[in-house]
Automatic annotation (TrEMBL):
The keyword Electron transport does not apply. This is Inosine/uridine-preferring nucleoside hydrolase domain-containing protein. Keywords: Glycosidase, Hydrolase. It comes from the Eukaryota. It holds the Pfam family IU_nuc_hydro. Gene3D superfamilies: Ribonucleoside hydrolase-like. One of its GO terms (molecular function) is purine nucleosidase activity. The keyword Transcription does not apply.
Amino acid sequence: TGLDGADIPEHPEYKTLIKQQDENYLWNIYQKIISVGRPVTLIATGSLTNIALLLKIFPQIKNSLSEIVLIGGCIGIGNKTPSAEFNFLSDPDAAHIVFTSPHVPRLVMVPLELTHTVCATPNVSERLRSLASPFSSILDHLLHFFASTYKQVFQFDSPPLHDPCAVAYVADKDLFEEQMMHVDIERTSEFCRGRSVCDIFDMYRREKNCVVVMKIKEVEQFWNMMLDAIELADKKSPVNSTKSN
C-alpha cells in the first residue's frame, strides 16, 4: 500500500473517492497542472508509470512544466537488487520513457546515494515523539516500518528517509550538491534490469539529460525543516480529532 505499518482512520467515502480517481487520474493530473497557469515542478516519489503515460498522452504538458524531480535510481548499489533501485525496477520502461522524453524541460534524479544519508536517528525520533499526538505516532511508525530490514540487510543503524528528500530539494536547492550527466535506464539485462547507468565522467559523450543530486550539505538542516513542517501539519491534522472522537 505504500503506507504499511500505520493504523490510519478510513474516510467514510474513501472507496468512492479512490474509484473516481482510478477512472480519471491521468486527466485529473493534467488538468491540475495546466490550471496553475504557470510552469510547475512535478515531484514523483514512486515508479514512473503515471508520469510516462502523462508525457505520452499529453505531450503538450511540456509547456506547463518547469521540471520533474524524482526519487529513484542509484549510482552504485541498488536496494531491490544489487544493481537496481525499487522505483525504477518496478517499471524500467516507464523510467526509460521519462529519461528520454523531449517533453521534460529539466529532469532531476534524487538517488539512493543521497537518501541513504538522511536517516531517522534516535534524536529525530525523540523530537517526533515529543509531539505526543496520533498524527506524530503514525509518522513515527511509518519512519521505522523498514528499520529492521535496513538493519539486517544493509547494516543501517537508523532507517533512511527517501521521498521527502525530493520535496526538500525543491524547497531549498542550495542545501544540495548536484551534477548534470547522461543517465540511461537498463531494461533488458538479466542481472541489471532497472539499473540507472549514470555517466558521471562523461565516458559516452552523450547529451546530458539529467541533474543527479549527489549530496546534501547539512543533514541536520534538512531535519529541522522536516520537523518544522511536521509540527505545523500536526496542528491541523484531522487524524488527531478523529482519534480523539
